[in-house]
Amino acid sequence: MKKIPTRxxxxxxxxxxxxALVRAPNYSRAYQDLSFLGREELRPVRLQLELLKPELxxxxxxxxxxxxxxGSARVPAPEExxxxxxxxxxxxxxxxxxxxxxxxxxxARRVVERSRYYEEAxxxxxxATRAGQADxxxxxxxxxxxxxxxxxxxxxGAFDARGKSIGLNITLPHEQAPNPYVTPQLxxxxxxxxxxxxxxxxxxxxxxxxxxxxxxxxxxxxTLTLVQTGKKRxxxxxxxxxxxxxxxxxxxxxxxxxxxxAADLSLVRYVETAEEAxxxxxxxxxxxxxxxxVRRRRSLSEVIR
Length: 305
What we know:
By secondary structure, the chain is α/β, with parallel strands linked by helices. It has 12 helices and 7 strands. The protein has helices at about 10-25, 35, 45-60, 80-95, 100-130, 150-160, 195-200, 215-230, 240-250, 250-255, 275-290, 300-305, and strands at about 65-70, 140-145, 165-170, 185-190, 205-210, 235-240, 270. Strands 4-3-2-1-5-6-7 form a 7-stranded parallel β-sheet, with helices on both faces. Helix 4 packs antiparallel against helix 5 and helix 5 packs parallel to helix 6. The radius of gyration is 26 Å and the shape is extended.
């Protein structure tokens, strides 16, 4: 038998070889290997993780039911809007012949008008939180996308009421950081829109949509579709600001063209104030009960006052 060559390895060399093996990427535990988890083939695992992590946290925080609040990230707080208007007015006075300054002034005035939605969203977050979490139970927890504008306002209202609220941020090229009013233990970041949408709706007992853009419309129509087709139990779907919504979406045209049934118009309710929105939600669940999904601690009919 032919003798094979032996490579001489000193103790120091053995130690270095072992250290190199331990440092090798494939030696790391799979669940700790971010490069491995980021591979295309691991997408199903990442989807499961995004579903499971918030679910465990929401369960641990005893979040029994939620109210979704959607709306534009471009609606500032009234005090911020007034400051922008004051700046624009000064600029317009300083440059009265400059068209850009006059256009900026007109835009600032519209921003001040829209800022009323911020205040109403904040009031709604306060009312829902004060009623739903009055005895430390966590019903009707406000859930938003966690960003600025209307989202910030609703989270801020819950913060003012000293209750919990949820923020479901998502990674986008131009996305913002979470607003400061989200409860830290209920602040999540998603990569997949689909899983984020599931978490918006899994515990939802109402949806309030303020004026907004593509994101607001996306969530609104997905919710309407799920309720219309019975995939989601019927719940209040509230459109805040009739004048905006009737201009933006002509539901009556959809009926007259035969695209939806006339009965589908009853899926939405227009409101103008936070009190009106909350009263509709309160009345709906007082009449229809909370159902088995929210049986922990107390039923919804007992929670609502």
